[in-house]
Design brief:
By secondary structure, the chain is an alpha/beta fold. The chain has a single domain, classed as Dihydrofolate Reductase, subunit A (3-Layer(aba) Sandwich), CATH 3.40.430.10. Helix content is about 20%, strand content about 35%. The protein has four helices and ten strands, in the order E-E-H-E-H-E-E-H-E-H-E-E-E-E. The strands form two sheets. The chain has an eight-stranded mixed β-sheet. The protein is globular, with a radius of gyration of 16 Å.
């Protein structure tokens, strides 16, 4: 069975975007383990807003290309998605149970605070990888919202970088 990995950059105060939707605070000066991470996955799952951002070349500033990865987009408002992507509607658990049981590598839960909350509430996340950036944004979009129940995690690894960025690797435990 494939694992779903929530892998995300987050500020020290828990935001994934600044107050104006900006993410210019994310470090891109070195690899920070991304090459190894990308070798583990073959698919990305995301919400509509993240998909629209990812497909807008004026908005995407990345050292990595995601063209080789299958993209799954959860949206009840999009009518269609580009080649290489699949539009998913309906029950998140049903859709993800089917994807997790398909052959392949792990799946990256790539974006969307609301989608992340849905995945966590449904118990669909197997691992959490946080790249904690040494910045306090003060406001913005928090990573964890609308989660009512406690979710236990076990730290399995950590890595610190000279820039002050810290990567934390967790497995979810019951």
């Amino acid at each position: 069975m494939r694992n779903v990995i929530l892998g995300v950059a987050v500020s020290l105060d828990g935001y994934i975007e600044g107050p104006n939707g900006e993410y210019d605070w994310c470090f891109t000066d070195q690899d920070y383990g991304m090459t190894a991470f990308l070798a583990r996955i073959d698919a990305l799952v995301m919400g509509r807003k993240t998909y629209e951002l990812l497909t807008n070349p004026d908005e995407v500033a990345s050292n990595y290309s995601f063209d080789a990865y299958k993209k799954y987009v959860f949206s009840n408002t999009l009518a269609e998605v580009a080649a290489g992507a699949e539009l998913l509607r309906g029950d998140v658990r049903t859709q993800m149970d089917a994807l997790k049981n398909q052959p392949g590598s792990d799946i990256w839960l790539f974006g969307g605070a609301d989608l992340t909350a849905s995945f966590l509430r449904e118990g669909l996340v197997d691992e959490v990888q946080l790249a904690i950036h040494p910045i306090i944004l003060g406001a913005g979009k928090p990573l964890f919202t609308n989660i009512q129940d406690r979710i236990n995690l076990t730290l399995v690894d950590s890595k610190t970088y000279s820039t002050g960025l810290v990567s934390l690797f967790y497995k979810l435990t019951n």
